[in-house]
Amino acid sequence: MEKPLGKRTKSSPSGQDIADWLRERIRKGRFVPGQRLVEIDIIESTGGSRAKVREAFQRLEAERLVVIEEFRGASVRKASMREIREIYRLRVALEGQCAADFASDGTAKDKARLRELQRELDACVNDNASERFARLNGEWHDHVIKGAKNRLIRDVLARLTVPINRLLFESFYDTRWLRKANIDHQGITHAILAGDSAKAGALMRRHIEDGEKTLSTIASEFSE
């Protein structure tokens, strides 16, 4: 069983610590859209106080990840189709810029790791390993963002993509989309490794735009 946050450090977890803990679980789909967040369960899981758990809820409400209702408490917020489209418009711009910057300014070490990730993604497609592909897809995108060395964009995208992570995961159970996504990854990876900034940025923007179209076809099950 996972140790509560408070037992991992000498001090009790702060509201920010608990917010980070909750955000990561929302990102990974452990807490799903519409699910009620029970205070006592979170207190037991984190070792935090009731006041700090409520502070965490308020932080996540400000990030539009949680809804707090009188007499009902907090629950994971559902993303509307309009919000999903807005998130994708921002991703097009920001991740496109990251791919371009990674191609022109990325380190040899980071590019070598990107090559390794691409090989792992290719193996997932060959094995039709949807769940592993979904996890590696997130790691691949995170690595491209990291490779751009822009902390501000990285922080924005880390919060921006949380509401759509479960939708992304679901999309990879469609073999056609999985293969199409990986063909896109291969092209972007090749452009980054070749140092072709313009091509890497353009291919990433198109990849994100295609992803928005795919998610639109399955979002109704999870959106408001």
Automatic annotation (TrEMBL):
Secretion signal span: none
Keywords: DNA-binding, Transcription, Transcription regulation
SMART domains: FCD, HTH_GNTR
Record-given protein name: GntR family transcriptional regulator
Lineage: Bacteria, Pseudomonadati, Pseudomonadota, Alphaproteobacteria, Sphingomonadales
PROSITE patterns the record matches: HTH_GNTR
InterPro entries documented for this protein: GntR_C (IPR011711), TF_FadR/GntR_C (IPR008920), Tscrpt_reg_HTH_GntR (IPR000524), WH-like_DNA-bd_sf (IPR036388), WH_DNA-bd_sf (IPR036390)
Matches recorded under Pfam families: FCD, GntR
Domain of life the protein comes from: Bacteria
